[in-house]
Amino acid sequence: MEVGHPSIESCAWGAPSHVDFLAPGVVIAGRYKVRSSLGSGGSAAVYLVWDTLCECQRALKMLAPSSITDKRKLTRFMREIALAQRVVHPHVLTCYEWLLEGEMFCYTMEYASGKTLADHLAQKGTFSIAQVEDYLSQICAGLGALHREGIIHRDLKPSNLIFGADGLLKITDFGIARYGSSAVVTSSGGIVGSIDYIAPETWLHSAYEKSADMYAVGVIAFEMLTGHAPHQRLSAMDSIQAKVQAASPSPRDERRDCPRQLAAVVLRLLERSPTKRIQDTGELSAALKGAKTLTSVRKEVSQRSMPHRGPGGGVAAAMQAVGRLFSAGALSLHLIVACLLLITLFLIGQAYQVPDTAPLKYINGDVQRSTDFTP
Q: Any idea of the CA torsion for 234, 239, 240, 243, to the nearest 10 degrees?
């Protein structure tokens, strides 16, 4: 058995075994006992195993023996392991070690006992605004860890976001991830990834930068708010054409309770031009924090600036709101100035509003409300 960093040479063995399935009870490397199958794809299968050394559950992903002699699949599997091992972060599924035993090539990773985000979307349809903001922040944190290591995921989607035993959302599946920017055209001329989440520039220019990962985050955000991707059409070709030629609709078109600030962040993520899009996770984190702060400030000013509280109540609420904007450090100076102008206009409007409790006067035989607030 070998443990470490794989190479093509270390995996060059003879004819593969015809066995593509590990039965419960099978022990791998004298340590990992198979409990059940968690799923399988075209070239790999994932199992729930018991680590007899650490006495805990792990997930084990094994390359199908029938794929071992395929150099392309083998290279992709080894790249997946190498990239997964580069990042240790609470919002990225942890990869532990790779194992080579006989005709078996696999690696172990953290077992996430929860469902995927796709499972929850299928069950619930949409999420609350608070959940969307929370999940976006978690995705942003995990993706930021990948990007700081120079890794572009290239396949961010709800089915590759899974909830761990700790309740945290974690990024998984580095099967088509790359180190650094790269083209995404395969040897057969196709583009790798999932149609709904691939950025417009990828279809047009076959290139994938970090901003393309940011576009995928925007699609996920839109989907969490509305229950579907922004450019879904009856056919894949129509969907691709729509995202390349048309601007994304606002999630507020279908979700009126979505704050304008959050909708603006989502639309910036979904910009067709990568230069106009939110560029990285640092910018996204600041935008999310700013949107959340501004939304809460607007609600509080609206609640505290009612006419029956008098002008003093509105001014006090406005000043408190402005203080929080500065202390939060979430908004740029020009946004704070804009907020101040909005608050000023709002208070001026309230000052000229006639309250329902204004006294009545008789004028020319008609009962009318007084606007001078005198008896």
A: 160
Q: Which residues contact 10 (CB under 8 A, 6 or more apart)?
A: 2, 100
Report the 10 Å Cβ neighbour count for 238. Answer: 12
Which CATH number belongs to the domain containing residue 137 in this structure?
Answer: 1.10.510.10
Average pLDDT, the chain: 77
Is residue 307 within 8 A of residue 353, CB to CB? The reply is yes
Alpha-carbon gap, residue 135 to 357, rounded angstroms: 45
Do 123 and 106 have their domain in common? Answer: no
CA 325, CA 108: separation in Å to the nearest integer?
45
Which residue is associated with the tokens 């609206």? 302
Residues 270 and 313 in one domain: no
Whether residue 242 has pLDDT greater than 50? yes
Neighbours of 45 (CB within 10 A): 18
93 and 136, same domain (yes or no): no
Tokens 């029956």: give the residue. Answer: 308
Q: Which amino acid is at 104?
A: M
Structural tokens at position 93 = 């599924």
Residues 57-64, mean pLDDT to the nearest whole number: 92
Domain limit, last residue, from 70, 91, 110: 110
Tell me the pLDDT tens digit for each residue of 256-273: 999 999 999 999 999 999
- Percent of the chain residues topping a pLDDT of 90: 39
Domain extent, residue 32, equals 2-110
